[in-house]
Every structure is written in C-alpha cells, then in structure tokens.
Design brief:
Chain A is an alpha+beta fold. Chain A contains eight helices and 18 strands. Chain A has helices at about 35-45, 105-110, 130-145, 175-180, 190-205, 230-240, 260-265, 335-355; strands spanning about 5, 10-15, 20-25, 65, 70, 75, 80-85, 150-160, 160, 210-220, 245-250, 270, 275-280, 285, 290, 295-300, 310-315, 320-325. In chain A, strand 12 (about 270) and strand 13 form a beta hairpin. Chains C and D meet through strand 1, helix 2, helix 6, strand 11 and helix 7 of C and strand 1, helix 2, helix 6, strand 11 and helix 7 of D.
Chain lengths: ~350, ~350, ~350, ~350
C-alpha cells in the first residue's frame, strides 16, 4: 500500500510518466500557517538536474494544493497536493516489460500486478514518487518546528568516502540551518570534492554508486513513543523503507552496538541542570522504543541506482530465454544527495505521528 | 502500542513480574492443525536458563490456550495463549524507579507513563515479553510451512566472533531443519566454542555483549509485498524493532550495498528451467518491496544486554542528583542465542500478513 | 478522518469551493478494465441540477484520473481522481462564521478546527464531497460486478410518501438494471408524482424534507464478513454514516425486528436445489456479521437538508448573542434522490473490502 | 475481526464453552485508578440468571486481570482480563452443526470457517462474548467519568411496550446514577410490570421478544469527532453492531428525521449564559460527525433471541435435506435488559477513542 500513518495519514499516488503524482495528508492540525517557499525549497533539494550526480532530466515539481489550505493555513481538512507530470509516457522504456532491469522492481512488479502495472519510467515504483513524500514531510517539519523539533540529515557516505558523523550529544542549531538548505549536505564540507569525484568516475564508467544518509531529530521531548510495536525505531523504519533503494537502517550505535560490551554501549545518565541527559548517545535517543530527550539518530543504507549504462544479463520474459540488456537514457549515477531531504521528510511524517500519539501535537 | 498487523493481528500483553503474559492472535485462517509440541519447542529455544549464555532464572513457559483452538485445530476465532508468571513481583528491583538503569527503558518508561508503569523486572519492557511473540510466530510458521515457506535464523555474530553467512541463493532444507531445533544456532558450528568463550569472559567481567542474527525466509513466492509502505522490508522491520535490543536491520547486502557500484550490486536474472532466478542475491529477495522468489534475507543488530554487574553512573530521580548504580540479580550476558527464535517468529508473523495481503494465505 | 478501509482504502479530499475535490483509492486489484462511461453515469446521477428536487447550481463533475489507470485498466497503483471546482470561493456565505446555520456543521466544525476550517459552501463538510465517494464506489461496483455482485438502491420514502420495499428474497436483475440508471430511483414508479409534489411544496415553503434510501446487495456469496467488529453491519454502517445527513441505518427487519417475536423474526432455512436459502429475509442477508447468501438489505435515514430559506434563530459567535439567520442561495429541498447513488457507492466500497478480507477479490 | 479501535484498541477473545474469554485493552492512559467493584457491578448487570427475563444458566463472571494494573492503577501497558469458563463444552448442542438454528450464526459461521469453528454454545458468536466488552467499557467509563463524561442507557422498548425517552436536552445526573446500577433500567419504572409480562408470555409460549435500547452520553465537550469517516455516528455504530442481535441504530431523531421538514428537524442555537446550546436535540448531539456539546443520543434495535423452544424448519447440512429443529436448553426470552450495560460499554470504548483523537484523553 502507498498509505502510511495513524493519527496523521499520508496517501501517495502517481506513476512516473502518468498525468500527475501527489499526496493526500489526512489528520493535520488546523490553524498551522505553512511557509510555501520553505516547502518548495525542500522539494527543489530533491529535484533532479542540479549537478552531475543527478539526472539531467528536468522536472518542474511545483505542487498545486487542491485542498486543506486557506491563506496558506491548514484548515484541518485533508491537504491534497498534486504535481503534474510534464514528462509523460514515451517509448524510452519500451523493452522493460520483456527484459526486466536487474536491481529494479520491473520483474517483481510484473508478477505482483500480473503485467498490468505502468512500466514507463518505473511507474509507481519510480524514485519520482519521493517528491510527494518530501511535500508531506515538509509540511510536517514546519508543524514540528513550532514545537522546537528539528530534523536534519547529511550524506554520511558515498561508496567508501565518508563524511564525519553527527556528534550525537550535541547537534548545533547552525549546523541544522546549513544542512536544511544544502543540495549536497555534508557536515565536513571538505568531503564534497572526493565524493563528487567518486560519483563522476562511476558516471564515466556507465556505473552508479550507493551510500548512506545520517539523520538527526533534535528537540524531541523525552517520553514520546511506545514499547514494542509503536516504538520510534519501528515507526521510523516502516516509513523509511518506503523510500526506493533503502536496504538498511540503524539507530544510535546500530550495527556497531552488536560488537560492543554493555559497559561500552550503555549511556550513563547525568543531570545537566534540571535535565536528565546521557554523556554518550549510543542509544540514538531511544530506549525501549521511547525518546530519552537526547537527539534521535539513525542511518539509512541506499543501494546504488540500479539503472546503469553497462550491458547486463537478464531474461526475456516474452521469449522465455536469457537475454542481454543495455539501459539507455539519463540516470542519476548516485541518488544519495537527493535522498537527504527525502529521508528527513519521511522522518518528519513519522515523528508527527509519534507526537500525536502522546497528545503532543 | 503492543498490537501489530492488519490481516492477522497480534496483541501482546503482560508485565515481567505480573500475573501472566500472553498474546491474542486475531485473523488466523480456520482449520489449520497445530503441532503444539512444535510450538513448545520453539518457546523452549527462547526460554532462559539453558546454559551459561543465559540467565539461570527459571521460567516455565508453558502457554495455556484459552480460545481459538479445538482439537488443536484453529477455529478461526481469536487464539489467546497465556503464560502464567511464577516469578512474580519481588523486592529485587526496588531501586530502579529512583535510579534508572543505563541502556534500559527505566527512564523513558518513567516519563512516558508518569511513573505508573510496573518496573519489576522491566515490566512490559522486559525481554520476557518476547515469549508471546514466539508463541504467535510459531503458530504462523506452521501455517506458512503448509505453503512451503520456511524461516530459519542463526547467530551471525557475537561481539567480533562471526558465523559464516547464509549462501543467499541456496539455503538447503537440511540446514533449516537443523537450525530450527538448535538452541545455539550456527551455520558453522565450529564458531560455537569461540562465541561461548567471548560470552563467558563478559560474564566473568560482570559485563555483557551484543551480536547479530541473520534470518532467511525460503519458499516465498515471487509477487508478495507492495511498493512503498507495505514493502517487505518495511513490514518486517516494523515488527522486528518491537524486539527489545534490536537497533538495526538490513536486507540482502544491506549496509554493504551502500559501498557498492551498481554493476556489483545488481543481481542478474536468468532462467533456471522455467523459473526466473538471480545468480546473486544482494537484493535479499526483495525488489521494490516485493518478493522476487529468491530467499528473503535480513540481519538484525542486537545491542548488549544493558543489565550488567559493573557499577555505573546514573541519576537519582527522587533526590534529583547524580548517583551510582550496581545491578544485582542474574542476567543474560548475551541474549543473542535466545533472540534467534524470537526473530524467526517476528518474521513469521510479518510474512503471514504479507501473504494474506495478496490472498495467498 | 476522511480515509476509510483496510484492504482497499479510500482517502477523500477537497472543500466545496476550493480548487478541487477527489479521492485516492489504494489497494485496487490490477488488471480490471473500467467502463469510464459507466462511472460518469453514476456521477451524473448524483450531480445536482437535474430537476426541481435538486439545487440548480451547476457542477461539471468530470473527474480527471491522475494515476492508477492505463488504457482504462487498473495498474494496481493508487488511483487518484480529481474533480476541479469551477464554482470557487465567493462571498455568498460570508455570515456563516459569525452565525452558524442550524442543523449544519458550521458550529461544530468551528469548534473542532478552531475557526480555521474553510466555511465557503460548507467546506469539507459539504455534500459535494460525496462526488468522490461516488467515483470510488463506481469503480468498486464494476469490480464487484465481475464476481456477480450487484448493488441497487431506491428512494424508500420522502417525508411520509413511501415507495414499496424490495422483496428481500427476490430482487430481479431487471429491477437492478433499471434502478442503476435512474435519477429518481423507485421500485413503484407511481410514487414519483406524489414524492415530487411533497418536495415541491417544501420548496415553495422555503423548507426541505428528509427521507430514506433502501439498498440491496445481491450475489454476495455466503461466508463473507466476520463476527464482532468486522461484521457486515458494522463495516457498512461505518462508511454510510460518512455521508452527510445520514442519521440512522437498519439491516433486514431492523427496528421492526425489535417489535417481533423470535418465531416471527427467525428466517427458516430450506434447500433450493443445492443452495441453502431462507424463506423470509428479516436477517437482511447477515447472521453473526456474516453473509448468508441471501440479499444484503439495509435502509438509511436522511434528515432534511438543513439549508432552508425560512428565517431561523441561531447565535452570533462574534457578538456573543442570540441572532436571526436567513439563508439565501439555492439549495436542494430534498437530497434523497441524489443520495441514492451515494449510498450504493458507499456500500460498494464496503463490500469490496469485505470480499478482500476473505480472499474473494 | 474481534479487534476494534485506533488510539485505544480492544481485542476480544474466547468461545462460549472454551477455557476462557477475555479482552486485551491496549493504549490506556497510565495512572488511572480503577474502581474494581464498579467494574464488577457493571459485569453483574450483564450477567444472566437474575430474573425470569434471563437464562437461569449460572455464570461466575469474575474477571482476573493478568496485566496492566498495579494497585488497581493502570500502568499504561496492555490490560488483559480473563474470565474463566466454568460451563465448558458439553453435548447440549450436538445437533447444531448438522442443523443450523434459524436466526443464529450457525450456518454463516459454518461457511465462513469451513466447519472448523467451535459451535458449542455459539462459540465465538455467543452473547457471552459481550462480557469482555462490558469489562473494557467499564474501564473506559471510569476514565471518561474523570473528564465529566457519563454514559447511561435504558430499555426503550420491549416488543410493543415502551419506556419514555430521554429528554434529549436535559438528562439529570440523578437519573444517570439510578440507571447505571439498575438491572432493569427504565426511565419510567412503571413500564417494568408490562414489559415483564410481555417477556413472561413469550417465555411461556417457548418464544422470545426483541426491543430497543436508548443510550445517552453527557458531558462530551463540543468539537469531538471528525467529518466523514471518523464521525461520532460512524465510530459508535461500528462497535455497536459488534454486539450480537443489534440490527439497527439511529442518532438523535434518527428515522423520524426522515419524515421531518428542515424547519422541524433543525435545532436552533441559543446562548445559555456563555454556552452555545440548542433548544431541541434532533441532531442527537452530533453535527457533521462532531459533537455539539449537547447530549449524544442513540437508539439500537435488538432482534429477538433466535433461540426459541418452538419447533422450526431448517436444513440438515449433513443429509443435504430440509429438517425440523427443536432447541432445548435454557435461553433468555429477552436479552434487552442485559444488553443495556453492553451498549453503554460499547459507547464508552467508542467515546474514549474519539476523545483520544482530539487529544482530550
């Protein structure tokens, strides 16, 4: 399903080369004034074509709000935003149905929908469907910001080139400010050149490259979340895995914690004035599924774009035999920079739901 | 919330030292004959006290089925299983409320529930609450087995000691048979000695150690799952993070995929007779959220048991000051071996829901 | 919330005088060819302005499908249909916020949304929002028709003028054919004149009139539904009460059953060839929440349109005092004829969900 | 499904003659002190055997709370209550599977569950399963009472004998007090004799009789509920139809509103001091799905108990032929008096969810 959420539900629709894509957001609090420019900014961070890491295919992702807003203020009714597709169905992808692209959902989508799914540009599986998520997330971010909750992500790695990580106990507001407007979001900006070189090399080789995104939520009060199946980790992961290419997620020390001893992993509590804090933050701001008041921190792993120019082996489903495939057209050699605002947005929708569950939004 | 699922819902209840714990399973197909001995076997794999990696505290986890079964056959009505607690509230944990244990949910639970939550033995946050998950999962496993779907997990690592991984394109049935009855489940059994030594050393040092569990689902037909928010990754992760101590999850190549090039990560399709398969399985049996017919493979990271004997710094919430804490009582120095059947069980509940969504169960 | 459903979810959006209204339908089976003319026909049955019972305000309810359809065949991805509003915000309703209209949601909406809801034309509370329900229901009807399930409703009464009721054990296919294309759907067409006279008299008196709609679902196989909270009555009622003006619903003999003896109300079973049927159908095709194979029959009570031309007492929320109100503009003196396809549509969405739950769709 | 609710979920389990029945309540606020005697009182109002209107079969419905309570105060964890069945499976109902009882779920349950459902005493379809609903509702009532919300119902009619109705604009607290402890709840107690005579006559004739229950919710603040599918009517009806024998529900003037003119049905607003009220209450406290601050009022129609002593025609599913059936054993000739606390309880669970949705609980 392409719907998600309880208290605040999003319902994403659209196919890459159909008439339009968009999202309905149901359950928004009324009376929140939205900064539309701020939303467009986030959408433009996700939009393709800004540099060589991204596909040069142009999208004008100007969302039209059909409902739920009056004078840019939420009415409490479902907010529907539509983005028209200007780049509609063409012959570019004509051979996909017969020869599924390795790493793509062509084959699984074909089986799941009995061959009736729209395959142009990936259809409903396309990364383009993350644009509505960014819209919804940008709305939620603005609502959360009113409660002092901020969300920022950065490119933690591309291939083997790493950015430094967030200091998990101290994420300065200025850093968040900077990351939130960046199209190549890095903590240590000196990593950019190396990362771009890595991507450029892949592009030249008709190849692509994966990476990781690290995301932090600051200002989340202690006591948000629930044990077991409505824990923060479960809620965030269930929406983040809705983003194409995400194949892993970890919170706090994550997979590193699996190598640690309890005495290393445990974060000791202390009083910082009247506030209980921890000196380290291996728990990623979450204990027993519930926020501790420390920053919530997670990292998502994104596989390399499966669309590559190199010839690949596949099958021909029509002829029932093995086949060779060359994918033409222009594709992002690395989608990690553009995934940054998408992951922030997914986190925002998740946190809005979590806040609502405990009557804090 | 402690409820999970759509087509097949589980509702877990209980507190560690309360009268009883259990689960209601709603939405089970009628007419499935359950092998109760098989269920007890899985529950005993999770039960503590079998060896030095586990707490010697004895639990008699014999579930009593109150409803939903007639002659061991599902009636279609909700199945409720209750496990009585013989080890009920005691004074052992008297200081927790004042001094939250680092790494535990004591502090966050206290804030979330305004101090009203049952803290004895961890209350509803206790690892003991995984027993009902194993019950529910064991029921689902048997139902799935009738469709040729099998689930097996093993200890992929404890600290820095690793088992070998599943061969992701070929998981022999005999291996699954063996793992499914093992209390220290390993593919390469020669790793056991080293792992036990690692755990024993931690125990001697009043410390604990984390690890990872790898889980495979075989026999899942292609075409199960959905794009976006009902993808297999999202569904499995949302229940697996309901297991205490899980801090990360990855599917297929997972975080390694983030370092790969598209030409490495893409799994090429080929015809194996009439069946479309992939030669490698970096996609972990999932493309676009939907099963490809290859084994579904994921790994979960478990942090070390936070209950350790060493003295730790914490706060005294009553006195409003920093404090020292020594945890007495007996605790697992490593919960990874016991987590194996829990993760298999969570996967089984998830897969049962996924199968139902596409009318295959 | 304006979302409904489990296996097949609808998410309705829009405000009466906003840019557009519409619906996202998520979970549709792929590969169903839709007859768009058939959908437009149902929408035109609901559209206003066809005669004196309806408001002369013109709406061009031509839905534009943005996604989920390829060559008029469902792709399995969410189907979004948008209806543009040509009649957008005007000054017609300027005094509503200060003086809530009796019988309308002006007052309650104002409290619920802190005064931020769009009040023009009733905003999200407007009867116009039933157009997307008719769209969604028309899609579902076509899918159900492929399984031999048909849905038909008629005006059971307007004020004190009654149509005859369905013969609950025998609803001829020809009657359904006729009702399904009628804009003033009656079993006994001789009632039309009297009903129209009743409505016309109300219109002349600047008043309005209520009525009831009776709806039948035929061809639903026995064994659909569930005990307790997913019973057919509960599922249908939870969506039917989403239609403005509905204040009551009854299944089978309904409120009459409350006056009956068991020996009268019980429907005896008999074999009609190989099929188990009942000789009477006081149970309305539902026993224990589950279909018996007999027609499912329910009646909904609709209150009179609250917008009337007569002067009424109300309050002035701004001046904090009692006030007089005269509603100008054109309003349906009776919405019952137009409610017929809306109720059929809500039933269709409900039945599609019920069928999916038992793997029959 | 036998689960219901969003913010506060109940999961009911059990079969009439199985080991036990009960309910898990998930999502309760922590820190609410429950008056257990008050809960038992409500359960005893529902319990059978108190007089000739009820079955003399004895049930000891003493619920055992397994979790979620500490010192009778909610911990925030799921609360599970179990009622042991002392009257377990017997031969009394041996012929049901072959010959389904008219008016019962025997036939539909048999089809739905392929003959695997437990038929003893009606299994999961039994009216006995309303005991857990009363438990859950009694918990919710106490929580609502802390917010000034009270719920009371009465026998509005048995057969053709009527009680007077609530004055919908003024429901005195003393009346609620009296109704809430009554086992034959009437506003006008002089109706009791006639009602009992009606029931006794049915009993003597080996017959049964239906009736209606009217329920009022007072103290619900204005602004609770939502337009469309989370309106108060839809939410209440979806749980009330989960009570066996309910075949109709109406809010406010309900089916009478269908005969009214707008000028009659519209409830005019006025200021009562600072409070906006309506002089009449045909809207039953609900406009646009949202509470107006006036009492919420609804009536439910209950069909007569289908178990009657008279010989009835049915079919023999085994022999595939028509058959005669005589039901022995003791059955309520009228379940309406016992349904009163059940309907109050269902309303309480519904209202608790509605209050939570708007952050008021």
């Amino acid at each position: 399903m392409s719907s998600w959420g309880d208290s605040l539900k999003i319902s994403v629709f659209g196919e890459s080369h159909g008439k339009g894509i968009g999202v309905v957001i149901d359950g928004l609090p009324a009376g929140v004034r939205l900064d539309m420019e701020g939303i467009y900014l986030q959408m433009s961070r996700r939009a393709p074509g800004k540099d060589k890491t991204a596909t040069p295919r142009l999208e004008k992702d100007i969302p039209q709000v059909l409902s739920g807003l009056l004078d840019n203020t939420t009415t409490g009714a479902p907010l529907c935003a539509v983005i028209e597709n200007t780049n509609t169905r063409s012959g570019d992808y004509g051979n996909i149905m017969s020869c599924p692209r390795p790493g793509h959902a062509d084959y699984t989508g074909n089986i799941r929908y009995g061959g009736f799914n729209d395959i142009s540009g990936g259809g409903h599986f396309s990364g383009r469907l993350t644009a509505p998520i960014v819209f919804a997330g940008s709305v939620c971010r603005q609502i959360l910001a009113e409660k002092g909750i901020r969300i920022a992500a950065h490119i933690a790695s591309i291939g083997n080139v790493n950015d430094i990580r967030f200091d998990p106990v101290d994420i300065p507001s200025e850093l968040i400010d900077r990351l939130n407007v960046s199209t190549f979001a890095l903590i240590d900006q000196s990593a950019e050149e190396k990362m771009r070189a890595e991507v450029e090399q892949c592009r030249m080789n008709l190849d692509s490259i994966g990476g990781t995104v690290e995301c932090a939520v600051t200002g989340l009060p202690a006591g948000v979340g629930s044990p077991m199946f409505y824990g923060i980790e479960g809620v965030i992961s269930s929406i983040v895995f809705g983003i194409p290419a995400v194949k892993g997620i970890e919170f706090g020390a994550g997979f590193d914690a699996a190598k640690m001893k309890g005495s290393q992993d445990n974060d000791e509590f202390y009083y910082d004035g009247d506030t209980v804090r921890t000196r380290t933050n291996n728990h990623g701001g979450i204990l027993g599924g519930i926020s501790s008041g420390m920053p919530v921190i997670f990292r998502a792993a994104l596989k390399p774009t499966p669309s590559i120019g190199k010839q690949q082996n596949t099958v021909d489903l029509v002829k029932h035999q093995d086949a060779k495939l060359e994918i033409h057209g222009r594709h992002d050699p690395c989608i990690v920079p553009r995934a940054v605002p998408v992951i922030e947005s997914a986190a925002a929708v998740a946190v809005a739901n979590l806040m609502m569950q405990v009557n804090k939004l």
